[in-house]
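Today's session is about reading a structure prediction critically. Students often jump straight to the picture, but the first step is always the sequence itself: look for stretches that repeat, for charged clusters, for runs of hydrophobic residues. Only then move on to the predicted structure, which in these notes is written as discrete structure tokens rather than atom positions. Here is the chain we will use throughout the hour.
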Amino acid sequence: MSTTTPLIFNLDFFFEDTQDSPSTIADSLIQLLGGESGQLDYRHFPDGESYLRVESQVQDRDCLLVCSLYDPNPKFLPLIFTAELLKELGARRLALVAPYLSYMRQDKRFKSGECVTSRHFASLISGSFDFLITVDPHLHRYQSLDEIYDLENQALTSAESVATWILREIHNPLLLGPDSESEQWVGEVARLADAPFEVLEKVRSGDLDVEVSVPHVDSYKEHTPVLVDDIISSGRTLLQTLEHLKKAGMQPAVCIGTHGLFGANAWELLKASHTQKVVTSNSVPHPSNAIDLAPALAKGLMAWLRRLPD
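Below is the predicted structure for this chain, in token form.
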């Protein structure tokens, strides 16, 4: 195999909830990029420590490590160990392909002594990789990843992938964003899907205590409500919105989240609520996956691979 062919290591394979997946983003990237599957032997010693061996020839090869960083704590050490080992073995460049990027929400010290984990996590990742590509990172108080990541990076948006799915699957959609922060992103999805949109008014008084209102619902009784958000975590905002839509006499909604984390029993609660369906991208493996991010990731990676290293 040529040294110009990228080696693609699927670290998600080592975590239980992806073992039975018929296809993964890593598999798709191998096809789309003409890459080679990188081979690793990874297991635990009886004391819980990691054993790791790279079985592929990596000298002077560009290596892509695919690892969606939901539930990041058990993944972090194997990820860093793999990156550092590949560098020791002579890899030319290392890219972290993290369709979901964790530790972005803790972006401010609200109380004395709190850890701003987003900054420390970014520093650790930056020390082990040359390039980071991700999708819809939670940029709230940060304007870009460059504020905390000290490496070349690309933050893709899922807007085009989401809009393509809506155009194909939804008749007469009305897009709804969960709050003012989502307006720019939901507006772009609506533009690409040629659909109207509204932004909800939201007041959060705790992790699970959210009040929302839906403006102008009376104008859209014949539309299919499509709730669009970057992350479905506890799902409480969506659940409250669905209840408002039901009381307003609107049709059952389609809920779309780029990243479906589904904590606090959110998946079961959403399925039992005023919904037609709940749809996510494959950034986090889940039965709701219907939007494929691999083509967008492959496009960004291809541009990086074509640039000669310094």
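Discussion point for the tutorial: The mean pLDDT is 91.
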